[in-house]
Amino acid sequence: MDGVKVIDHPLVQHKLTIMRDRETSTASFRRLLREISTLLCYEVTRDLELTEVEIETPLQPMKAPILVGKKLVFASILRAGNGLLEGMLDLVPAARVAHIGIYRDHETLQPVEYYFKAPQDLSDRLTIVVDPMLATANSSIAAVTKLKERGARDIRFVCLLAAPEGIANFTAAHPDVPVFTAAIDDHLNEKGYIVPGLGDAGDRMYGTK
Ligand code: PRP
Ligand code: URA
Question: What class of enzyme is it (predicted)?
């Protein structure tokens, strides 16, 4: 699929299987999401630009590679996005963070926005939007639209599970935003849940229902 990269690393797939299991505890679910997110982070940042700096090792001077440009931004779609955010920050601790409060109405499946806080200068930074679930894509489309309104131009979207319907909707709305996902599942059910999926990611992360 154009603009979509499936990260089929064996460790990602193994951990994802445990997360899908209904018997997996809240504590394990959270830990696995954090672990997987470091692996997803590795892939989504694979092509970041480098420059060279002069340093001195204990043995001799050398030119060594270092990331160039402004610190990148991770934009977490609350709540469940925070599960991916933590592992991303483990790998890129100097990143800036945007929080986007959106939940989807259970009846209409339309996004309800309740919070937005982001760094001012989004136009100069790569923005990586994180949310474990891309179902209808209504939430992620709204989040990316908001980030673009606030100036973001270079955006990537990372999730754990995507539905084919959600990918089609998302890429139609934001064809310039590549999607990175650990798996593309079979379909959405009549309630907008990803099947086979893993259930409600936020509820499983935080033990709510
Ligand atoms: C979940 C998930 C996404 C959204 C995906 O959040 O984390 O944000 O649903 O569904 P969509 O693609 O159909 O919009 P939810 O609305 O359950 O909020 P929560 O993270 O606060 O639990
Ligand atoms: N949000 C979730 O948390 N899970 C789904 O399957 C769909 C939307």
Answer: transferase
